[in-house]
Every structure is written in C-alpha cells, then in structure tokens.
Amino acid sequence: MRRSFASRAWVRALSFALALPALGAESGAPPPAPGTPPERELILLNWADYIDPDLVKAFEARFNTRVRLVFFEGDEARESLLAKSQGRGYDLVLINGPRLDTYRRAGWLAPIAAEDVPNLRHIDPRWRETYAAEGWAVPYTWGTTGIAYRSDLVGEPIVSWKQFFQPAEALRGKISLVKASRDIIGSALKCLGHSLNSEDPTELDAAEALLRAQRPYVKTYTYVDLDEHSQLVTGDVAVAMMYSGDALMVKKHQPSIVYVLPEEGGGLWVDYLVVMQSSPRKKLATDFINFLNEPENAARLAEFLYYATPNLAAEKLLPTAFLQDPTIYPSATTLKKSEFAVPLSPRVTKRYNRIFDELTR
Questions:
Q1: Which residues contact 9 (CB under 8 A, 6 or more apart)?
Q2: Can you name the CATH fold of 8-142+269-323?
Q3: Which of 78, 163, 247, 254 is the most exposed place for a label (fewest CB within 10 A)?
Q4: What residues have CB less than 8 Å from 14, skipping those under 6 apart?
C-alpha cells in the first residue's frame, strides 16, 4: 500500500524553506545540516510526490549519505529557481525534455558517462535518444498529459479537449489546469486541431482566445493535490488537466475518477534526471541515478508513481495488470495523435510566457 502523501500546501511551504538557502549559497550547494559533511549530502530538485521515500532511505543507508529533497510546483517555478541560482545549488535536477538543450547550452549540465551509470544498459534506447539526451540526461519516467474527471459529477463522459476548453455550464468554477504554459497552451492548440508545437501567429491567437473564454470556468491554475484531500476527491474540482500517473494516484482515494487521453491527442512526455555542472558531488549523483535504475528499484519506483518506466529490465518485474493498464501504457492507436513538445523559438516562448502570466495572475 502506498504511503499517504503530505498535502501540497505543506509541500510548497517546505520546498520554499529548503530553496532559500540553496539560492543564497555563493559556492553552489547550500550548507549541510549541522554535523553532516557537505560531500555526503545530495541535493535533488524535483516535483513533489515524485520519488519513493523508501528508495531514498535505502540509498542513504547504502551510501552513508543524506538526500535533501527540494520541490518545485511547476515548470515555470523550476525555471525561476535555476535562473536565480544560475544552475547552482543542486546536484541533481528533474527536468522535462524540451528544456534539456537549453540547460545544456547554458553550461548548467555535466556530461554523464556510461561507465558511471552502468545500469543505463537497461534503459530503452528510444527514451535515451529522445531530445538527444544520450550522454547528458537519464530517462526517469514517461507518460501523457490528458484529462481526469469525476464520472459522478459530470453529465456525460469526457472524451475531448473541446469538452474541457468549451465546458458545459454546470462545470463553471469546477475546472483545474496545470501550472505549466506548454501544457496549457499546447492542449488548447490540440483542441483546435493544431500541433501543440505550433508557432503560427493565427493559431496562437485562436488558442489564446479559447483560454480566455474558458477562464470563468476555471477554479485554479494550480495542480490538484495528490492525496486524500485532493480537490478531485472532495469534489471542489470536477475536471482537471493531469498527468497520467497522477490521475491513477488520486483514483485510489476516489474510484469515480476517470483519466482520458482526448480524441484530439494529448501531450507525450519524458522526464529526465540531470547532473548539474556546479555540483561538487557528481560521483554521488551518478551513483543515485544508477541505484534508481537497478531493475528492482526501477520497478518499485514505477509502481509507486503509477508511471511507465523506461527501464526494460524493470518492466519484466512489473505485474501484468500494471503493464496492461492503458493509462500507464497507452496503445499505439491511442497515442497516434499525441505529440512530444519540442523547443520553441524565443519569440514564441515570450508569447507563451505572456499568455500564461495573464491567465494565472
């Protein structure tokens, strides 16, 4: 049985408190806890609820070290933390594929040698090659971006982005979106029949208009909680943009939650772990990545997170029901219209940021 998750309100408070010393450290890593040698503390910047704490404890015991977890709430929040510190203050960072090249060109990333992570041999090459990650980033999980909804609170099954962005009146004030500009704007583009990577000004105008028209129906642009207090569980939110595994996590607390990859297609993504160039603990960082990719550990992480693992050896250890769950492992037919996000031009990125800021302010 999965352990209970802390509320995201508490997690946000904790992540802010932990992030402050990291940003203020001139030499890179924040000072360790009293009595902890700095070379034996590994600092990981990650989403909340996105690591099995028991795996962390097992790593700490085996390597006689401490792992400090610093959390971010969304892609924009991670960007802000890293920009303020110029990529310093963390040993490992969880990033999404489209940001990999940006961070690499900024000089923030250390190369990852195959001999330092021998368990790379277990990882499906397609995920290592996506976003040209080979040698710079190690796949962590992969999944989709779609819609989670309460089947008992909506009038009819939701199957499309159109029902999400042009909702029924009964859903006014009952919709939640994720706090990430690429997901919000990309999904609006998919709703209109365009690529989620479109840079066409006319198509972006239409997506912005769609999002503005939806705004009265939106309760929050903050990601829903993932524990028993989730807005989807309490019914404060009836429909939410969510990542696939998170929807299954919340479904444990409310069986009427349904996840769907919309008929127009959704986002297909890969998350990666990267080692920061400023880290004085690069060997410990690669040890952590290698530890997570021991097949038994990778399988355990996948089950904890409800996400597909890129580790082929771990897949052999997973229950059949897990491997056959269409939310976790969608069929090729289901994924046919879904897309990976690719880096956008600076001009379009600036426009995305403006739209996002105006929607969420």
A1: 225
A2: D-Maltodextrin-Binding Protein; domain 2 (3.40.190)
A3: 254
A4: 6, 71
